[in-house]
């Protein structure tokens, strides 16, 4: 993909297509590490939060003896309806 570096406020920026971000497994808001290697800019995803947790793995860690219980949070302070 051919693109241009553009002025963005006091900085410079690039735009990436959704397809390109999907291929790199990067989503808007993800942290990335940017380095320069041999005169090339390299962008690497950092602990992609969207793939960090697995719901099945998290649920499997719940104790077999766990019993949910109702919690009294006190009187309502806004427009809550109970």
TrEMBL record:
Domain of life: Bacteria
The protein, known as: Transcriptional regulator/antitoxin, MazE
Xref: PROSITE patterns: SPOVT_ABRB (PS51740)
Keyword Transferase among UniProt keywords: no
Pfam family, one: MazE_antitoxin
Tagged with keyword RNA-binding: no
One of the record's GO molecular function terms: DNA binding
Keywords, ordered alphabetically: DNA-binding
Organism: Candidatus Schekmanbacteria bacterium RBG_13_48_7
UniProt xrefs under InterPro entries: Antitox_PemI-like, SpoVT-AbrB_dom, SpoVT-AbrB_sf
SpoVT-AbrB domain residues: 3-48
Entry-linked PANTHER family: ANTITOXIN CHPS-RELATED
Entries under SMART domains matching the protein: SpoVT_AbrB
């Amino acid at each position: 993909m051919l693109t241009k570096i553009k002025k963005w406020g006091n900085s410079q920026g690039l735009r990436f297509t959704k397809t390109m971000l999907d291929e790199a497994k990067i989503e808007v808001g993800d942290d990335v590490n940017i380095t320069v290697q041999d005169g090339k800019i390299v962008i690497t995803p950092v602990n992609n939060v969207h793939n960090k947790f697995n719901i099945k793995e998290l649920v499997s860690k719940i104790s077999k003896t766990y019993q949910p219980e109702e919690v009294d949070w006190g009187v309502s302070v806004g427009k809550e309806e109970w």
